[in-house]
Every structure is written in structure tokens, then in C-alpha cells.
Design goal:
Blueprint (H helix, E strand, L loop, with lengths): L37 E3 L15 H10 L2 H17 L8 E4 L5 E4 L16 H8 L2 E8 L9 H15 L5 E7 L3 E4 L7 E2 L2 H12 L9 H17 L7 E3 L1
Parallel strand pairs: 4-5, 4-8
Antiparallel strand pairs: 1-3, 2-3, 5-6, 5-7
Helix pairs in contact: 4-5
Length: about 240
Amino acid sequence: MPNKTIPTGKVTPSYQIDACGSSQSPSCGGLWDTSVSSVRIPAEYATGPEGNPTDPKIVESICFSRYLDEWFAQKHAADLGYWRSYGVEPRSMYFGSQNGAFRIYPARQSEECGTYDHRLRPWYVAGSSGPKNVVLILDTSGSMSNYNRIGLLKQVAQRIVSTLTVSDRILIVSFSGTAQPITTSDGYMFQATSENKEILATLIDDLKAEGSTNFYEAFDQAFDVVEKTAEKEITASCNTAI
């Protein structure tokens, strides 16, 4: 960052990085740079010298998106008076590509390198896929206890649920010898609100691997709930994925 400053002359808690030390010293803690943006990529793509990417598509995305810096700076300057009239700094601006390149303005350090993947964030998923109905049919039969399959299933299911937004609907059907649809109290798909996502994450975490495998019933019940929710006209109108 060529022009590091402290936002509004004091440390902004969300920008403070303890590992960098005090923001009052020449370090990175609590500093940003409104003249440029900074780039982040997931660790698995940082395979080149000094943690740089080698994938040509990611390199290309980083290169062409650097021209956003001029617009970012102009927009920041134009909005500065408005936001400061409310006692806050202008909102951050982002660019995220489908290959994992992420650009954030104003430029600032991240707490940990390589841990952030914007493609898993609700704002990116919502923008790239639109409102959707998502049905997760989860095998919880006894064989899922082998090789930690049930643990992997829970991890993936919770990751999917975490990316959804209030524009989405979600249904989970777990099955072993019988199928157990997880629905609202009146038998409809859940709206993916923060509260409902927390409920579903807890229910997913409580799943256990036991019993036989009856996926026919699981699909039958999934379609029944989706159709019932659609008849009530409370599904998303764009996409449905099972």
C-alpha cells in the first residue's frame, strides 16, 4: 500500500490486525489506502513465488480488474461527504471473479492470507445465481459412518446453507431406512434467513449415520414438499436445484 492512512484518524476496529501491532506505529494494523485496491486469492492458488498465482486466468482477472482503481477512488471521493455526515466511512467496494481473484477497495491487509474465498460468500452467490430453491438430499445410512463420510456430508451441507440469502428457499431431506424432510412447521421449504440457517446448521450437525438406504422415499418427499411450496407461491422463481 503506497499511501497508508488511518481511517478518520483513528483505528477502525474491523481493520485492526493485532499481529501487525499498533496502528499508530509504521505497521499494517488498522491502516488502509484509498488510492488503490488490494488483491486476495485463496491459498490453493498462491502457488508462485512470494505467494503469487500461476493460473493464467487468475492472473488475467487481476490484471484487467486493476483499472477499477480509478473508478473506486472517484466513487469514494464522491460519497465521502455523505457517509461522514452519518459519522462513518464510505462503504468498501469489491470485485470478485469466478476463478477466485478478489479485489477490495480501499486496500487493506487481511488477518490471514489465503483463507477468504468470495465465491462462498452470500453476496457473490446471490449475484451469480439469482434467487433459487435448493434441495439437499442427504444420505445418513449406516455406510456413511465409514471413512468419515458423514462428517464430510455435514461440512458440505453446512457450507451450502451458509451461502444462501433471504431470496432463496431451502429444503433438506435426510434419509436412511426412511426419509426425514426438514421443513417449516406447516410443511414448506425454509426461507434462507439468518435465523433459519442457524436452525438448519444445528440440525445438520445432529445427523447420525445409521440404518439402511431408501433414496426412493427421499426423492418422493423432496418433490412433494417443493410442489406444495410452489402451489403456495412462496418459492423462488428463477432456479431449482436438487
